[in-house]
Amino acid sequence: MRSRIASVSTAPDDSDASARPASKGERTRQRIIDTALEMFAERGYDKTTMRAIAAEAGVSVGNAYYYFKSKEHLIQGFYEQATMRHAELTPTMLEGKETLAERIEAALLAWLDIAGPYHAFAVQFFRNAADPASPLSPFSEDSGESRDRDIALYREVLEGSKTKVPKDMADILPEMLWLHQMVVVLHWVYDASPGQEKSRELARRTAPLAARVVALSRLKILRPLVKQGEELVRDFLITRRPGHYGPAPAEE
Q1: Half-sphere exposure of 47 toward its Cβ, with a 13 Å CA cutoff?
Q2: Is the dihedral of CA 241, 242, 243, 249 positive or negative?
Q3: In which residue ranges is the amino acid composition biased (Low complexity) (predicted)?
Q4: Given 110, 117, 135, 205, which is the most exposed site by the fewest CB atoms within 10 A?
């Protein structure tokens, strides 16, 4: 019998029948995702087929494709649930934390806690996600909703801290902090340390650095440099969509 791995489902535990997903379709969709993640961990992403996932989940191949257009879109379901879980878990970890460094660290560690059970197939998954044309890419249009959810979380991280954010960078900084998270995730993918502890240490050590950069951006002596950086981000940040930021605010 296959070992069970943790689910990222946002639904409460199955022991409370009234708290299960509202419909049979939602339960079927969740079962397909959970089955796929277990099989990816055991067989590897590339060696697991949609047909095998459907058979193990107890649904027809056609039914599996009804919920997920491809294996890649099935992973999108996992990514969506992971970001939803991140949005649920992080506020609890932010309670009582007022410094920006503490809040950034809490958000990063929350993501690593959620991703931890899936490290076994992370390298194979990342190889596919690294393709810019793949829907698995965190920068793809398919990932837009999940990406925006995580970026919104970092906006909450900023707004709840004591650090004052420059008004003309308030829209960009959450996305830059999300990119910081992507750097930590990339390290986590290839982290061979026990329990990926080095990735957690990376999160702890880079969070104060990121917070310091945000704080320094308010200094007048650094404003010309900050302005140049802001323009570069607005013009070249690859997650930007047309009209997402709008024109840069005029100088007062």
Answers
A1: 8
A2: positive
A3: 1-22
A4: 205
Which residue, among 229, 227, 219, has the nearest Cα to 250 in the 3D structure? 227
Domain assignments of the chain as residue spans, ordered by start: 24-69, 72-237
pLDDT in tens, 211-252: 998 888 778 787 787 777 777 766 765 554 444 444 444 443
Amino acid occupying residue 132: P
Global pTM value = 0.78
8 Å CB contact between 109 and 90 = no
**Which two three-digit tokens encode residue 224?**
């010309």
Written out in words, the top-level CATH class of the domain with range 72-237 is mainly alpha
Amino acid at 25: G
Tell me the per-residue pLDDT of 150-169, one tens digit each, with 9 for 90 and over: 999 999 999 999 998 878 78
Which one, of 232, 114, 251, 243, lies nearest residue 179 by Cα?
A: 232
Q: Which CATH number fits domain 24-69: 3.90.180.10, 3.30.565.10, 1.10.10.60, 1.10.3720.10?
A: 1.10.10.60
What type of residue is 50? M
Q: How far apart are CA 221 and CA 240, in angstroms?
A: 28
